[in-house]
Give the backbone structure.
Amino acid sequence: MRIVFMGTPEFAVPSLKSLVREGHEIAAVITQPDRPAGRGKQQKASAVKVVAQKLGLTVWQPEKINTAETLESLTVLQPELIVVVAYGKKLPAAILQLPARGCLNVHASLLPAYRGAAPIHWAVIKGETQTGVTTMMMDEGLDTGDILLQKVFPIAAEATTGEVHDALAELGADLLIETINSLSRGDLQAVAQTGDSTYAPLLKREHEWLDWSRSALELHNQIRGLNPWPGSFTTYRGENLKVWRSRPLDVLKVNGGPKFGKVLRITEDGLAVETGKGDILLREVQPAGKRIMPARDFFLGRHGQVGDYLAT
């Protein structure tokens, strides 16, 4: 099948590779323009661009997708299908209507749950025990198109967003090929989304802050849900401190406060900290400008004492 592929981050790479491996004709790969990244703010290509160039594919990087020039260029290509995987920009109606077989999207949730930009993060942060991937025919709404296929993926209690992301990227690639094969045979019918919808917005700085008055389980889910990016943080003695790994110790006990974030004990595995409900073990942390390290080593290196408070 003659396909135009649109995608940007690492999540989209397995899907692109699968299309090439299956012998589909990739007329062009459209991805976001190179952006400044890192401390030096050097221009960095998207993960999809890097892979597409290695595969010898034509790469386009329009600053704006909703232009007459882009539409004209796509029209000349005459794609049968446009495949979109985490491209990062909303497609106008003119492009959605261009391919003979429409625009097919791979989304990292079980729609209509977690529509939006950060479905994996929010599924983990909210403590979901399962998520999955959905293929759908795109419309002008935000992840509101008719569903083609879905596959469920269980979320382990200790799984991070990074781990779930990598698994869903591969699962999504497999589901994409299965979907295209079924569409080619004519034995797949899209169905409208039903049930309650939820939204997964872009993460902001406020979502990274650890509020110790919340429960140990909520904090644990937040910490693993923001690992490996952007990371959750607190402060200790006025210094920002990212927290990367944790484990809830007691989610039943309701603590009295009024101040939470107290270091209760130092163990071989980390620091036990009081929360609004139960205690949490901080296992790996990262002081500003330093490497990730065991929480115990950080605390003892700062001559911390039982009874000290975080975020004060």
User: Anything to note?
Assistant: The chain has two domains: 2-185, 205-301. The longest helix spans residues 161-185. The chain has eight helices and 15 strands.
